[in-house]
Each structure stands twice: as structure tokens, then as C-alpha cells.
Specification:
Layout lengths: L1 H22 L4 E3 L6 H5 L12 E2 L2 E2 L10 H11 L6 E3 L4 H15 L12 E6 L3 H9 L3 E8 L2 E2 L1 H9 L4 E6 L13 H14 L4 E5 L16 H7 L6 E6 L11 E5 L1 H11 L8 H10 L3 H27 L6 E3 L8 E5 L4 H10 L2 E3 L16 E4 L6 H21 L1
Parallel strand pairs: 1-14, 5-6, 5-8, 8-9, 9-10
Antiparallel strand pairs: 2-3, 4-11, 6-7, 10-11, 12-13, 13-15
The protein binds pyridoxal-5'-phosphate.
């Protein structure tokens, strides 16, 4: 027919463009959400700072202060809006604190350690962060997916998942600029999560990974702090909130923070006591000399935002060139990722085509538990690490790959 003739005509010109791109021998990686070197430069003062080795009468050069030095716990209290007594300021990775919390529950939870339960399960909003899924998989905890909607998680589906399953031990959420699709949960959604989870079990764990808490690059809805909402719903004993400076100062060289109730702090203390005698207090001091408080952090993050925003704009502009029939994409106002949802089940084919042309994308399926995207349509784009020119090239490849994969099926 005329239509199929037109489509094959179109495909032919796109394929010609694709061959031209391939001939350029590109090598571009947009798999992981990492700051670029200009962003890292914003914190260079940390590299050459004189550090006062005492905090009051605490000698920072020695063992001690397993939950972090006083100033660094106060900084965590400011960032997470929780009382200082409920804060651990740990090493450089919030993922490590999350892992230690899950491990503590697995080995020692009251009244029953998760390891002694029949088939313990966890709720995972999707799409989500691959390392969360890997962590739960390590423990053999079965992951039950619940879709994310604009306001947070789909509460009705969350409730249904709980009603039809035994031994669901918790939920893991990224409540601001969710990785990868950028949702910013509403207060009401978080309140509903607390209420529904608490009604299911007094022992249900709410693990909020606030990795992108201060990472807005465009105006974003204000949220009541998660810890405050936990207090309002009387779920503090079940709530754990983590964040870090991995994308504030240096990846692997920042600080991590956790807010938790006394009982959860006791549990994690048990685990941490077997692993680390104390965190790196010198680095904690370095950071508390660099940031006097939350306002300072926000000013610093505004500089990150100025560097990141143009890259997201380039990516949005490129994706807007695609006809809506091909799929749709998220337009987050913060964080590090954009998702593209293809209309057809072609995500893995798009990744394959991009790779052929020298552009590495996060593996299709990576944003779902067990690496299995049931619709094979979700892709994660991480535009921050490469420079703007490379990003434009990478997006040209991406769009070309989407068109080819769409038209060939
Ligand atoms: N949590 C989320 C949702 C992330 O996207 C990332 C990094 O990509 C991390 C945690 C890692 O944080 P950290 O370096 O503090 O372990």
C-alpha cells in the first residue's frame, strides 16, 4: 500500500543516517547518573582545606563516635529535618546504610528475624533504582512491583499487593526526583503510604532513600520532610530515611546520613559494630567546615543546578522531535535521570542499536526487579556526565535508534 511504501521510504532515509553515524566510530556512555568534572570542581576547596582535628574534646584522629561527630550529625539533622539524636552520619555511601539496615532486620529483627520468615517480600515501586533491587535480591527477599504515578506510588495497587501477600516486610521509595522517572511524591501520598503500611503491620519498614533531596534544577513542589510526616502518622518506629553528599560534593568522598527511631538505631548499631568501629571523622569535619548549614548546601546545589539544567534541556528538546507515536518521556525538575517509554516493546532493541552506533545506554530492564521489564518499553537516560556537544550527538543516535526500532517492528 501507499502507507507501507511511505514507511519503508522513511526507514530507508533513517537507516542511511544511522550508517553515517556508525561510520563516525563514536564512544559515548550515558549509562550512569554521575556529575561532570565542572560539578566536581565546585567542591575543590575540600581538597586543600586545613582540618581542625578536634571537635570539642573529641580527638577526630582516633576511634570513637560510631554514629558520627556532633557537627556532622547536626548537619544531617538539618538536611533530613529530624532530631540530631535520631541521626547517624556514616561513611560515604547511603546505599551502605540502607544495606546495613536491611541486614540488621534480616538477622536480628524483633520479634522475628526476616531470615526466619517464610518467603519475606518487599514492595518496590517501578521503575526504580537497580541497586535497590540488587540489594533485596542478595537477601532472597521477593520483590513485588507497584507502579509509580505522578504523585508517588499507586496507593490502590500498593494496598492490593499487601492484601494479597503475607510477610511483606517493607517498601523502598525515592520520594523526591525518583530514580529514574523523576516523580516527586505528594505529602498526601507519603501519608497514605505510612497509613496503609502501618495498617498492614506494626513491623512494616518504610525505607525512604532521599538521594535527590536537595537536587532540584528547576522549580519543584515543596514537600513536608518525610521524618515529619512519619511523626504526624505515628510511624517513626517504622521509618528510615537516608541521603548522602555523593552528588553534593564527591561521589565516594562525601557523607551519608540516616534518620531512624531509637529501636532501629539499636538494630543498626548491632550490625555496624561488627563492621566499622567508627566512620571517617576527619572527612566529616572537612564537610562541616565546608558547609555551615542547610542554606549553605542549598546555595552550593544552585551552582550544580546551573550546570545540569542545560543538559536536561538539550535532552528534552531532542526527545520532543520524536513523534508522540514512538513513545513519551519524563521531564523531571531535579535528580539525574530521564525515562523514555516506548510505545512498542522495543527497549532492548533500542539499547542494541545505540550500542551498535557507539552509545552505551543503561541495560533495558535494569529499572525493574530481576532486570525484567514486563513491557520491554522503559529506558533510562543519564545526561549529566558528558559534555553538551557529546550529549547532542548521543541524543541524535538515541532518536534514530528509536525510529528504526519502531519502524522495523
Ligand atoms: N540512591 C539512589 C536512588 C541513587 O540514585 C543513588 C545513586 O545513583 C544512590 C542511592 C547512591 O548513593 P550513595 O552514593 O550515597 O550510596
Amino acid at each position: 500500500t501507499t502507507l507501507s511504501y511511505k514507511i519503508s521510504d522513511m526507514l530507508e532515509s533513517i537507516l542511511t543516517h544511522f550508517e553515517e553515524i556508525k561510520a563516525r566510530g563514536l564512544s559515548i556512555d550515558i549509562t550512569r547518573g554521575k556529575p561532570d568534572s565542572y560539578q566536581l570542581d565546585l567542591s575543590n576547596e575540600l581538597l586543600k582545606m586545613d582540618i581542625e582535628p578536634f571537635d570539642g574534646d573529641v580527638d577526630l584522629r582516633n576511634y570513637g563516635e560510631p554514629f558520627g561527630i556532633s557537627d556532622a550529625r547536626q548537619l544531617g539533622a538539618d538536611v533530613l529535618s529530624a532530631p540530631k539524636e535520631n541521626i547517624i552520619t556514616g561513611e560515604q555511601s547511603s546505599l551502605l546504610l540502607s544495606y546495613q539496615m536491611i541486614l540488621a532486620k534480616y538477622l536480628f529483627d524483633n520479634p522475628t528475624a526476616w531470615k526466619d520468615l517464610d518467603n519475606p517480600k518487599f514492595i518496590c515501586p517501578v521503575p526504580g533504582f537497580d541497586r535497590h533491587f540488587r540489594m533485596l535480591e542478595d537477601f532472597g527477599i521477593e520483590m513485588i512491583t507497584v507502579p509509580l504515578i505522578e504523585d508517588g506510588i499507586d496507593i490502590q495497587k500498593f494496598e492490593e499487593a499487601l492484601n494479597s501477600n503475607k510477610n511483606v516486610m517493607g517498601v523502598i521509595c525515592v520520594p523526591r526526583h525518583s530514580n529514574p522517572s523523576g516523580e516527586v511524591y505528594s505529602d498526601q501520598n507519603i501519608i497514605n503510604i505510612f497509613q496503609v503500611g502501618k495498617a498492614y503491620s506494626d513491623n512494616f519498614l518504610f525505607l525512604f532513600d532521599n538521594a535527590y533531596l536537595v537536587h532540584d534544577f528547576m522549580p519543584t513542589r515543596e514537600q513536608t520532610p518525610v521524618w515529619q510526616l512519619a511523626a504526624d502518622t505515628n510511624t517513626m518506629n517504622q521509618a528510615v530515611v537516608v541521603t548522602s553528599f555523593s552528588k553534593v560534593t564527591f561521589g565516594g568522598g562525601g557523607l551519608s546520613f540516616m534518620a531512624a527511631s531509637d529501636s532501629n538505631l539499636e538494630l543498626i548499631k548491632r550490625i555496624r559494630g561488627s563492621m566499622v568501629i567508627c566512620p571517617d571523622k576527619i572527612n566529616q569535619k572537612r564537610h562541616t567546615q565546608f558547609f555551615s548549614g542547610l542554606d549553605d548546601i542549598k546555595n552550593h546545589m544552585a551552582k550544580h543546578a546551573d550546570l545540569i539544567r542545560p543538559k536536561f534541556e538539550i535532552t528534552y528538546e531532542a526527545l520532543r522531535k520524536l513523534d508522540k507515536n514512538y513513545g513519551n518521556f519524563s521531564e523531571p525538575t531535579g535528580g539525574y535521570f530521564i525515562t523514555f517509554i516506548s510505545e512498542k516493546p522495543i527497549a532492548s532493541r533500542i539499547v542494541e542499536l545505540c550500542k551498535e552506533a557507539g552509545v552505551l545506554l543503561t541495560a533495558a530492564g535494569a529499572t525493574f526487579p530481576y532486570g525484567k521489564d514486563p513491557k520491554n518499553n522503559t529506558l533510562r537516560i543519564a545526561p549529566t556526565f558528558i559534555d553538551e556537544q557529546e550529549l547532542e550527538v548521543a541524543m541524535d543516535v538515541f532518536i534514530t535508534a528509536v525510529q528504526i526500532a519502531h519502524l522495523e517492528t
